[in-house]
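TASK: fixed-backbone design
INPUT:
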């Protein structure tokens, strides 16, 4: 099995394209099942956020795996394969590991260093686990990815410049209307992004805060936690009229803020952090209404961390990638060594059968002594070579040793067996 990452993000696609590709939570399991039904895909994890959609997969072949994943993405989004290809990036094996670690460390985020991506990766991993779509290879990749992200945030100052997309959006809003402290604000949506928005607004001194959500109970719990006010979703128009800043972050499949609603509530700054977008596309040119969406944030690229912090994270990522690759190389040699030992045991067993047939006068005790001696001799002969070959396999270019052993001893090591025999490397996140 090999690692393959196929994805698109704010760097390679506009918001309209991301809106068609993004997976709603209710779709995740069905998409995961569709992916692992493909002939070249054995395992899959799907990461779907407001500014990236990525599939991490364990595949039996690069071209076959890429074709399988692209066909699922094309079918889901309704985007033709040729059009979709223009927006995708592809990473294989070492590059896939490096990309995953960079994503978790916040190096690939719209706001470099933001920590929200760690939670999103964890959710994606848990969803894949619940759907039984992640096998040994992706379990280890995702666990190490989460650990690397935690390490980057704990050991460097990468997250000092900006805590999240929400904080970057507030910076852009302040550039339009000035200091946001003490300005009344409305948060639409009480999911993960809505909760993050409430927390960020509270820290920034924006308020009083009002929260509305289609599910009233969730809005009430969030409001209680932050000293905000929850209002029924049916009173959205009235809540808009009382606000100067609006953060909309729902999981709605269609717009929740149309031209008539916003025109009646002006003046207003709306931060649309949802994908698909919460603000209707025809909301332009309304006097007193400023709309800032994910696309606008991508253009701003605010709050970049210091070069020294970025360099420190890059060093962590580079070291961790090499550690993971050493594990991968060891994973490749392990089933080959196991097959070699099995072959040796079979040879010993065959010779013992011949000996027993020739010397029927041997007692059971004598037969046991001969058997132990033969097995001990074989194990001693194999010990040093197998220990050494594991060491050599963990070094760059070490995959050649597994191939060499298979050819020298004519070992049959099926691909499925190699994938099942992946050893643990620890460090669960």
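OUTPUT:
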């Amino acid at each position: 099995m090999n690692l393959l990452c196929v994805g698109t993000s704010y760097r390679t696609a506009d918001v309209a394209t991301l809106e068609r590709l993004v997976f709603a939570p209710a779709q995740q399991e069905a998409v995961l099942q569709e992916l692992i039904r493909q002939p070249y895909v054995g395992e899959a994890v799907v990461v779907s956020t407001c500014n990236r959609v990525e599939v991490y997969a364990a595949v039996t072949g690069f071209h076959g795996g890429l074709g399988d994943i692209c066909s699922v993405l094309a079918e889901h989004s309704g985007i033709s394969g040729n059009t979709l290809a223009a927006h995708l990036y592809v990473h294989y094996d070492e590059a896939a590991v490096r990309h995953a670690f960079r994503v978790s460390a916040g190096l690939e985020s719209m706001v470099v260093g933001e920590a929200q991506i760690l939670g999103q990766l964890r959710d994606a991993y848990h969803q894949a686990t619940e759907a039984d779509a992640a096998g040994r290879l992706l379990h280890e990749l995702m666990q190490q990815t989460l650990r690397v992200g935690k390490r980057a945030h704990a050991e460097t100052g990468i997250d000092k410049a900006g805590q999240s997309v929400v904080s970057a959006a507030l910076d852009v809003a302040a550039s339009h209307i000035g200091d946001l402290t003490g300005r009344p604000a409305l948060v639409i949506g009480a999911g993960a992004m809505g909760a993050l928005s409430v927390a960020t607004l509270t820290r920034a001194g924006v308020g009083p805060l009002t929260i509305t959500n289609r599910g009233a109970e969730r809005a009430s719990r969030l409001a209680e936690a932050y000293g905000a006010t929850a209002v029924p979703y049916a009173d959205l128009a009235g809540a808009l009229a009382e606000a100067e800043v609006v953060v909309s972050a729902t999981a709605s499949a269609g717009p929740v803020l149309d031209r008539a609603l916003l025109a009646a509530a002006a003046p207003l700054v709306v931060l649309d952090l949802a994908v698909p977008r919460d603000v209707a596309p025809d909301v332009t040119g309304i006097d007193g209404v400023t709309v800032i969406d994910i696309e606008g944030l991508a253009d701003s690229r605010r709050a970049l961390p210091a070069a020294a912090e970025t360099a420190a994270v890059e060093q962590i990522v580079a070291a961790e990638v090499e550690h993971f690759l050493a594990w991968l190389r060891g994973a490749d040699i392990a089933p080959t060594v196991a097959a070699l030992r099995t072959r040796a045991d079979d040879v010993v067993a065959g010779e013992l059968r011949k000996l027993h047939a020739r010397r029927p006068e041997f007692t059971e005790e004598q037969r046991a002594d001969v058997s132990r001696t033969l097995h001990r001799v074989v194990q001693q002969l194999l010990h040093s070579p197998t220990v050494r070959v594991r060491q050599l396999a963990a070094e760059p270019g070490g995959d050649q040793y597994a191939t060499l052993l298979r050819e020298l001893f004519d070992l049959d090591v099926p691909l499925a067996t190699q994938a099942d025999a992946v050893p643990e490397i620890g460090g669960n996140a």
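COMMENT: The chain has a mean pLDDT of 86.
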